[in-house]
Amino acid sequence: MFCPKCGKINPDDGKICTGCGAALEENNTVEKKPKKGLGKIIGILVAAVLIVAVCFLTINLTGCAPQEYDGEDIEIVNF
Ligand SMILES: [Zn+2]
Question: pTM for the complete prediction?
Answer without folding.
Answer: 0.33
